[in-house]
Every structure is written in C-alpha cells, then in structure tokens.
Amino acid sequence: MSASLPIRRWLAKGFACAAAGRLRRRYPDWAEAVLSEHASLSDADNPLGWAFGAWWASLDLSPGGALYPLLLALSLTTMALYQWSADESLMTLGVVGLLALVLGLLSPRRFLLSGVLVGVVVAGVNAFEALSGIRPAYETMPRDLIHSVRWVVLVLPALAASAVGRQLSLRFLD
Amino acid sequence: MPRNRAPSRQTRNVLDALLSQPAEWRHGYDLGKLSGLSSGTLYPLLIRLHERGLLEAKWVEPDRPGRPARHAYRLSNAGVDFARSLQEDAAPEAEAEAGEALA
What we know:
By secondary structure, chain A is an all-alpha fold. Chain A has helices at residues 4-23, 28-40, 47-61, 68-85, 90-106, 111-132, 145-149, 155-173. Helices cover 74% and strands 0% of the residues of chain A.
C-alpha cells in the first residue's frame, strides 16, 4: 500500500464530512447521501476527487456560500482602506457595524468569523503603522503599539452587528 | 411544466443518462461516470432537479454487507416527459448540424 493512500483516505473523509456539514441544515437527506456515497466508494473510484467535488458543490449550495469568501475579502479590504484614509471616529464604528452586519446576513453560520475579522482590521492597520513607521499623510504623530492594539475592542460591536445580521438572515432569508 | 430558460449542457447530460434506462435507480457515483460530470457539478444539478419534481430519490440497501445504504436516483414521470421533450427539441438541430457537416 502506498504511503500516500492513508492520507488520501483521510483527506477524502474530511472533505466528505465538511460537505455533509455544510449541506445538513438545508439539505439533510443529501448530506447523508454524500456521506454514504463516500463510504461506498473503493480506492479505485478516486474517493478523494469525488469528496473534493462534493465539498465544492456544498460551497455553492450553502446559503451565501459561493459569495462569502469574496465578500469577506472585499469587506476586509474596504475596512482597511477606510481606516488608512480616516482617523477613528463614530463613522469608523458605523463602517465596522455595516460590514459585519452584511456578512452576518450573508452567512449566518460564520457570524463569529465575520465579526472577529472585521473587528480586528482597525487594530491591524494601526499596529502596522506603529510597527512599520509607514503612516498616512494626515497622521503627524507616530502611533504606539499599545494604543493601536486597544482598538481590538471594535471586535465587540462587530460581533454584535454580525449576530444581528445572522438573526435577520435566519428569520427572513432562510 | 413551463421552461423558463434552456437547460445547460450538463443538465442535458444528466437527463440523458437517466433517460437511457428510466426505470433503473442509479447511484450518484455511477451517474457521474455516465454523464461525464464531476460530483461538484452533479450534486447541485441533482438537488435542483429533485426540487423541481423532475427527479425521484430513495435510499437503497447495499448490495454488499457492511456498506451503508446509498441514495439512488431516477427520473419522475414529469422528469421523463421533460427529458424526452428536450431530446425531441434537440433532434432537428442535430440533424441540421449533421447535414451541414455532410454538405
């Protein structure tokens, strides 16, 4: 037996389980179908390729699934650019809340991930300024790292907003 | 059943594969091989056909002990009609293409 075979089996099982996990809420019968089909395949049937395909399909079939990674990246970029172009203000809080709300609405299952990632961007950008010394033109004083890291507190409103988005999605969209 | 837009080539492949032996129940893996589609394309199609009432699904006991029951699929009556109507629509086009190729 090739040494890679157990790894391939393990990966195939992981993809099949991940696919079933994504499908379970909306298509419970099809989630079980993916698992049973995977368990029925022999090594000659290329279960890894099959399971990866099933996982890929589950991205498309889960609510907001295919769009989520793209919109998450777009949201984080928007947040970072906004923070780079403006100082912290109530508007910053508004942008954080809006982006986290939209992401929570789009993918209720990943509201924690959305809230945390959107919430840490401001602290991340500030920490980058403090560590690198590179800062936007309007920033006349260098930042200190402690001051920067305390903006992690924005994770809390971001989480609250993504949780609201999640509730709205579960109530009205699902 | 009203058809809002022409089905994709992949959908036609699945329907053709199922229509070749409409009474037979087929597993997802076999259907993938028959239609030439990967599981990533096949399963969303099967789910959508099932949601539209064109596909029947049931659990089938395994043919070998120790294996789990498997999901199996075949066209519903509406699915058979739909697949046949697609084939009939496609036949004149195929004849025209063949005629052009021979000309």
